[in-house]
Amino acid sequence: MDEITRTKRNRLPSMYDVARLAGVSQTTVSFVVNNVASAAISQETRDRVWAAVHALGWRPNAMARSLRTRHSQTLGLISDEVVTSPYAVRIILGAQEAAWVGQQMLLVVNTSGQCDIEQTALRFMLERRVEGLMYATMYHHEVVPPPELQSVPVILVNCFVADRSLPAIIPDEVQGGYTATEALIQRGHYRIAFINEVIPMPALFGRLEGYRQALANYGLPFDPTLVRSCHSNAHDAFAVAFALLEREDRPTAIFCFNDKMAMGVYDAIKRLGLRIPQDVAVIGFDNLELIAAQLYPPLTTIALPHYEMGRRAVELLQASPAGENVPPTQHYLPCPLVERASI
Amino acid sequence: MDEITRTKRNRLPSMYDVARLAGVSQTTVSFVVNNVASAAISQETRDRVWAAVHALGWRPNAMARSLRTRHSQTLGLISDEVVTSPYAVRIILGAQEAAWVGQQMLLVVNTSGQCDIEQTALRFMLERRVEGLMYATMYHHEVVPPPELQSVPVILVNCFVADRSLPAIIPDEVQGGYTATEALIQRGHYRIAFINEVIPMPALFGRLEGYRQALANYGLPFDPTLVRSCHSNAHDAFAVAFALLEREDRPTAIFCFNDKMAMGVYDAIKRLGLRIPQDVAVIGFDNLELIAAQLYPPLTTIALPHYEMGRRAVELLQASPAGENVPPTQHYLPCPLVERASI
DNA sequence: ATGAATTACTAATTCGATTTATCAACGAAG
DNA sequence: CTTCGTTGATAAATCGAATTAGTAATTCAT
Fold first, then answer.
1. What confidence tens digit (pLDDT) does each residue in A255-314 have?
2. What pLDDT does residue A30 have?
3. Residues on chain B touching A64 (C-beta within 8 angstroms)
4. Are B332 and A301 in contact (CB under 8 A)?
5. Closest by CA position to A265, among listed A169, A343, A175
6. CA nearest neighbour of B284 among B180, B192, B202
7. A253 and A191 in contact (C-beta within 8 Å)?
8. Superfamily of domain A73-171+306-333
């Protein structure tokens, strides 16, 4: 086995060490290990070089290489709380897997929303000469990123700047709301309640807009009394759903702003002795695996494309010609329907 | 504002550029920006250097520095599925925040359990000369990591090798099981059921052992009919709990192997018209914020110390003298009780 | 047989920093 | 008047690779 031999003052072996052992020049070693097409090296010499490489357990030093080639082969991901959140974390997964196919690695920093950490993270990453930066947020909202961000190609993920001057990858909330509502309509429902979030955010407006568009498209009336809002947690949604379902003209389907709310809605429906989906259909949003799959019956919901956002972000960074900024397009990624058993 | 000026063939400015602008040598710039104590530089010159630095928007090139100093200031984290799982991801957060205070950055790769990815990730990281490696898993189990892992200080997180020859940071499952059971006993329960996982894993044995120790310690009999097992999901736990609660000598408290099970147990209790915690107390394990906080009543549970495991791992790597391996101690971190309202 | 082309390889420079050794100027001490 | 020490700065080597510009030795074409 290639034992890791330490040469010269306990250092890891360098190309020079390999060259000496193989009895060739360092240049030759470089040509051999990089398989340089323009270099003419005999098979015999190649074999000697590889033998020396394995004997010493040599590995290229990425720092030296990057210094010379001026390519760090790394991308940076700065996020507010993505790591903390159970689903937004898939942004990282998508980004990392895409970086992987481009032979790049990901530097990840979670700022926990602190500006000083953000500043320092940015500094560290720029010092490491990242070839692109992603600025990601846990939930879809407007941001004001630090200006130094733009000293390298950058792309916003799950967020955007007010003037849309930076490229962004964001979920298509309108389509998501539309898809959810449409799914209910197609199953014969025409009295569809919508329990929305109260804190103003793109998701709130977008999903409501999608809901209205779907109703309109299928010729159904928009009934304002069927649209309620509360904080997006199970407890508050329970109360709202309970009230909604006690009416004699109760809705036959409830579209919940998110899965946490759906959890409370389930409780309300069960408490009233109603069945899901026979008496009341429920659809959620976010596709929180943990909730949606564990609820009984499993919750049909709309997924946020976190993984895809991460992947697309990296792909766009990679596609943009060396050092060039990514064009400031706003990419809206679809939020697909995830069918389980609640509608 | 420090505009980023590009000098010489569109390159970022180097120390040499700063030196020329300030009318000093590159050495002097290095001494000034690094505040080298042994160097005698007049205040006037220092000011000129800093002025040039800001005028050019110069930033140190971490690759060049690392090459010279032989310190990469980075740590690697290789995980199977940590990024995918909503709670284990806190390992990353803990590691990153600890790395942060040591001025280090984290390279993260999620292998999705694929050996080839693991190999390549390891290679990439070693090429980047990471100063330490963490090998983390989504759930607590035995692993057989690739041997090359040990060419750099390494520590296992949430996993261990059979012969305990590598340092590991793992949750203290026995204490966790003990704490959960004790919490119930202290609230006056003496018929405590335990719904365990079926797939053999350290958590299964450890938590059961903790359960037995607590009963023994408080002089309570161990009743094997109160210990059931099923796959750890809400649906299967529902059935088990239902059966358990239909007995006339039904338990007054249920310790669930994890929070997903608790979700099903809640459903069973409610279906039987019983109240939580008045009629039946429930305690979970894992502290899945999403479930535990959203359930009604909020679930009291035992937390896995993911964040702390990540942090401790990095601290141990940092504490170990340059290049030395971390001593192969197995660090058991406590699983604390998180009190909500279900017991 | 001679110049051209090809083969097989190496010397030297470069990337952008850190660090050691050295140097000039100047005042103080002997 | 030399020597010494201090202050203020620099030249040069180094880290580990990639890369350009060669150079010998051999083969080929004419």
1. 999 999 999 999 999 999 999 999 999 999 999 988 999 899 999 999 999 999 999 999
2. 97
3. 67
4. no
5. A343
6. B180
7. yes
8. Response regulator (3.40.50.2300)
Superfamily of domain A173-303: Response regulator (3.40.50.2300)
Ranges assigned E (strand) in A214-327? 227-229, 253-256, 281-286, 300-303
pLDDT at residue B146 tops 90 = yes
Residue A236 phi, psi (nearest 5): -65, -40
3-state class (DSSP) for residue A124: helix
Q: Identify the CATH number of the domain defined by range B15-60.
A: 1.10.260.40
CA distance B338 to chain A (A): 18
* Buried/exposed code over A163-177 (b: 16+ C-beta within 10 A; e: otherwise): eeebbbbbbbbbbbb
Residue A336 reports pLDDT greater than 60: yes
Q: How many other CB atoms sit within 10 Å of the CB of residue B11? A: 10
Beta bridge partners of B155: B134
Give the residue range(s) of CATH 1.10.260.40 domains in chain A.
15-60
Write out the two tokens for A27: 């240049």
Q: Where in chain A is the domain with CATH 3.40.50.2300?
A: 73-171+306-333, 173-303
Q: Protein A40 CA to nucleic acid D23 C1', in Å?
A: 14
- Portions of chain B given CATH number 3.40.50.2300: 72-171+306-333, 173-303
Topology, domain B72-171+306-333: Rossmann fold (3.40.50)
Cβ-based neighbours of B224, under 8 Å, separated by 6 or more: none
Reading the block at residue B64, the tokens are 């060049």
Nearest to B237 by CA among B209, B223, B257: B257
Residue A116 identity (one-letter amino acid) = D
User: How many Å from the N-terminal Cα to the C-terminal Cα in chain B?
Assistant: 59
Cα B74 to Cα A24, A131, B96, B131, B311, distances in angstroms: 33, 17, 10, 6, 15
Radius of gyration of chain A, Cα coordinates, nearest whole angstrom: 27
- Residues A252 and A189 sit within 8 Å (Cβ to Cβ): yes
| pTM to 2 decimal places | 0.90
Chain A 31..70 CB hits on strand D (< 7 A): 31, 33-34, 36, 58-61, 64-65, 67-69
Residue of B nearest to A13 (CA): B127
